[in-house]
Design a protein that fits this description.
With about 190 residues, the protein is mainly α. About 55% of the residues lie in helices and about 5% in strands. The chain has a domain at about 60-115. It contains three helices and two strands; from the N terminus they run ββααα. The radius of gyration is 54 Å and the shape is flat.
Protein backbone atom coordinates (compact mmCIF):
# COMPACT_ATOMS: atom_id res chain seq x y z
CA UNK A 1 0.00 0.00 0.00
CA UNK A 2 2.86 2.36 0.60
CA UNK A 3 3.33 5.20 2.95
CA UNK A 4 0.59 7.64 3.89
CA UNK A 5 1.90 10.60 1.95
CA UNK A 6 0.19 12.14 -1.02
CA UNK A 7 1.84 14.45 -3.53
CA UNK A 8 0.70 18.09 -3.59
CA UNK A 9 1.33 19.75 -6.89
CA UNK A 10 2.38 23.38 -6.88
CA UNK A 11 3.54 25.43 -9.82
CA UNK A 12 7.22 24.83 -9.23
CA UNK A 13 7.66 22.11 -6.59
CA UNK A 14 6.08 18.86 -5.65
CA UNK A 15 5.69 18.44 -1.89
CA UNK A 16 4.23 15.54 0.06
CA UNK A 17 1.84 15.86 2.99
CA UNK A 18 1.01 13.08 5.42
CA UNK A 19 -2.73 12.27 5.20
CA UNK A 20 -4.86 11.24 8.13
CA UNK A 21 -5.33 7.47 8.40
CA UNK A 22 -9.02 7.48 7.39
CA UNK A 23 -8.45 9.58 4.24
CA UNK A 24 -5.44 7.49 3.25
CA UNK A 25 -7.39 4.22 3.58
CA UNK A 26 -10.32 5.74 1.67
CA UNK A 27 -8.06 6.72 -1.22
CA UNK A 28 -6.45 3.25 -1.27
CA UNK A 29 -9.90 1.62 -1.38
CA UNK A 30 -11.00 3.85 -4.25
CA UNK A 31 -7.79 3.10 -6.19
CA UNK A 32 -8.30 -0.69 -5.76
CA UNK A 33 -11.90 -0.45 -6.93
CA UNK A 34 -10.87 1.61 -9.96
CA UNK A 35 -8.20 -0.95 -10.91
CA UNK A 36 -10.67 -3.83 -10.51
CA UNK A 37 -13.29 -2.09 -12.69
CA UNK A 38 -10.69 -1.36 -15.38
CA UNK A 39 -9.52 -4.99 -15.41
CA UNK A 40 -13.09 -6.27 -15.69
CA UNK A 41 -13.82 -3.85 -18.54
CA UNK A 42 -10.70 -4.94 -20.42
CA UNK A 43 -11.68 -8.62 -19.95
CA UNK A 44 -15.18 -7.89 -21.31
CA UNK A 45 -13.73 -6.12 -24.32
CA UNK A 46 -11.43 -9.07 -25.06
CA UNK A 47 -14.22 -11.63 -24.72
CA UNK A 48 -16.87 -9.78 -26.75
CA UNK A 49 -16.26 -10.30 -30.44
CA UNK A 50 -16.60 -7.37 -32.80
CA UNK A 51 -19.94 -7.30 -34.62
CA UNK A 52 -19.81 -8.62 -38.15
CA UNK A 53 -21.31 -6.90 -41.17
CA UNK A 54 -24.36 -9.17 -40.93
CA UNK A 55 -24.96 -8.23 -37.27
CA UNK A 56 -24.48 -4.52 -38.00
CA UNK A 57 -27.00 -4.71 -40.86
CA UNK A 58 -29.45 -6.63 -38.63
CA UNK A 59 -29.12 -3.99 -35.85
CA UNK A 60 -29.78 -1.21 -38.36
CA UNK A 61 -32.88 -3.02 -39.65
CA UNK A 62 -34.08 -3.52 -36.08
CA UNK A 63 -33.54 0.16 -35.29
CA UNK A 64 -35.43 1.15 -38.47
CA UNK A 65 -38.31 -1.22 -37.60
CA UNK A 66 -38.45 0.21 -34.07
CA UNK A 67 -38.52 3.76 -35.45
CA UNK A 68 -41.35 2.88 -37.88
CA UNK A 69 -43.36 1.23 -35.07
CA UNK A 70 -42.84 4.32 -32.93
CA UNK A 71 -44.06 6.60 -35.73
CA UNK A 72 -47.13 4.37 -36.32
CA UNK A 73 -48.07 4.38 -32.62
CA UNK A 74 -47.50 8.13 -32.41
CA UNK A 75 -49.85 8.72 -35.37
CA UNK A 76 -52.52 6.49 -33.76
CA UNK A 77 -52.18 8.33 -30.46
CA UNK A 78 -52.49 11.74 -32.15
CA UNK A 79 -55.60 10.60 -34.04
CA UNK A 80 -57.22 9.36 -30.83
CA UNK A 81 -56.31 12.65 -29.12
CA UNK A 82 -57.98 14.63 -31.93
CA UNK A 83 -61.15 12.52 -31.65
CA UNK A 84 -61.16 12.96 -27.87
CA UNK A 85 -60.81 16.73 -28.26
CA UNK A 86 -63.71 16.79 -30.78
CA UNK A 87 -65.93 14.84 -28.39
CA UNK A 88 -65.06 17.16 -25.50
CA UNK A 89 -65.78 20.25 -27.61
CA UNK A 90 -69.14 18.82 -28.65
CA UNK A 91 -70.01 18.07 -25.00
CA UNK A 92 -68.99 21.57 -23.95
CA UNK A 93 -71.14 23.14 -26.69
CA UNK A 94 -74.10 20.95 -25.73
CA UNK A 95 -73.78 22.02 -22.10
CA UNK A 96 -73.57 25.67 -23.09
CA UNK A 97 -76.69 25.43 -25.28
CA UNK A 98 -78.54 23.60 -22.50
CA UNK A 99 -77.59 26.31 -19.99
CA UNK A 100 -78.69 29.01 -22.43
CA UNK A 101 -82.01 27.21 -22.94
CA UNK A 102 -82.54 26.94 -19.17
CA UNK A 103 -81.77 30.64 -18.72
CA UNK A 104 -84.16 31.57 -21.54
CA UNK A 105 -86.93 29.39 -20.05
CA UNK A 106 -86.35 30.99 -16.65
CA UNK A 107 -86.58 34.48 -18.14
CA UNK A 108 -89.81 33.56 -20.01
CA UNK A 109 -91.28 32.14 -16.80
CA UNK A 110 -90.40 35.28 -14.84
CA UNK A 111 -91.84 37.47 -17.60
CA UNK A 112 -95.05 35.41 -17.55
CA UNK A 113 -95.33 35.74 -13.77
CA UNK A 114 -94.75 39.48 -13.92
CA UNK A 115 -97.39 39.92 -16.66
CA UNK A 116 -100.09 38.12 -14.63
CA UNK A 117 -102.67 40.44 -13.01
CA UNK A 118 -102.34 40.77 -9.25
CA UNK A 119 -105.30 40.40 -6.91
CA UNK A 120 -105.58 43.44 -4.65
CA UNK A 121 -104.19 42.78 -1.20
CA UNK A 122 -107.25 44.29 0.54
CA UNK A 123 -109.39 41.33 -0.52
CA UNK A 124 -107.34 38.94 1.63
CA UNK A 125 -107.65 39.18 5.41
CA UNK A 126 -104.39 39.88 7.14
CA UNK A 127 -103.51 37.21 9.60
CA UNK A 128 -102.00 38.44 12.80
CA UNK A 129 -99.81 36.23 14.81
CA UNK A 130 -101.00 35.68 18.33
CA UNK A 131 -98.22 35.18 20.81
CA UNK A 132 -98.82 32.15 22.93
CA UNK A 133 -97.08 31.31 26.09
CA UNK A 134 -95.08 28.12 25.77
CA UNK A 135 -96.21 25.46 28.16
CA UNK A 136 -94.53 22.19 28.81
CA UNK A 137 -96.00 18.88 29.89
CA UNK A 138 -93.43 18.50 32.62
CA UNK A 139 -94.43 19.42 36.16
CA UNK A 140 -92.31 22.03 37.85
CA UNK A 141 -90.91 21.31 41.26
CA UNK A 142 -90.28 24.98 41.97
CA UNK A 143 -92.04 27.65 40.01
CA UNK A 144 -89.94 30.22 38.24
CA UNK A 145 -92.31 33.10 39.06
CA UNK A 146 -92.63 34.55 42.57
CA UNK A 147 -95.98 34.57 44.34
CA UNK A 148 -96.88 38.10 43.34
CA UNK A 149 -96.87 37.17 39.67
CA UNK A 150 -94.14 39.65 38.79
CA UNK A 151 -90.98 38.60 37.05
CA UNK A 152 -88.77 40.51 39.44
CA UNK A 153 -86.34 38.26 41.30
CA UNK A 154 -86.68 37.90 45.07
CA UNK A 155 -83.70 39.59 46.69
CA UNK A 156 -81.52 37.21 48.65
CA UNK A 157 -80.87 37.99 52.29
CA UNK A 158 -77.30 38.55 53.26
CA UNK A 159 -75.80 37.27 56.48
CA UNK A 160 -75.93 40.81 57.85
CA UNK A 161 -79.66 41.06 57.12
CA UNK A 162 -80.39 37.70 58.73
CA UNK A 163 -78.40 38.73 61.80
CA UNK A 164 -80.47 41.91 62.09
CA UNK A 165 -83.66 39.88 61.91
CA UNK A 166 -82.58 37.51 64.65
CA UNK A 167 -81.49 40.39 66.91
CA UNK A 168 -84.67 42.30 66.34
CA UNK A 169 -86.82 39.30 67.17
CA UNK A 170 -84.85 38.43 70.34
CA UNK A 171 -84.41 42.02 71.54
CA UNK A 172 -87.81 43.50 70.94
CA UNK A 173 -87.98 44.79 74.44
CA UNK A 174 -84.41 46.16 74.40
CA UNK A 175 -84.77 47.89 71.09
CA UNK A 176 -82.37 50.79 70.70
CA UNK A 177 -83.46 53.24 67.97
CA UNK A 178 -79.87 54.46 67.45
CA UNK A 179 -78.52 50.93 66.81
CA UNK A 180 -78.74 49.89 63.17
CA UNK A 181 -77.73 46.28 63.80
CA UNK A 182 -74.10 46.53 62.86
CA UNK A 183 -72.90 46.51 66.47
CA UNK A 184 -73.95 44.37 69.37
CA UNK A 185 -75.99 46.02 72.15
CA UNK A 186 -75.05 43.62 74.96
Amino acid sequence: MGDRTAPICDESTVATVRLPRRQFRSQCKKARRRQRRQKEAEARDRQAPLPTEEEKRHQQEQALADQLEYERQKALWEERERQHNLINTARRKALETEQKAKELAKQKWQAALLSMPMIPSSSFPIERKVERKKTSNMKKFIGSEPLGGTNLPIPRKRYKDRLKDTRSSSNRLDHDPNNDGDTLTH
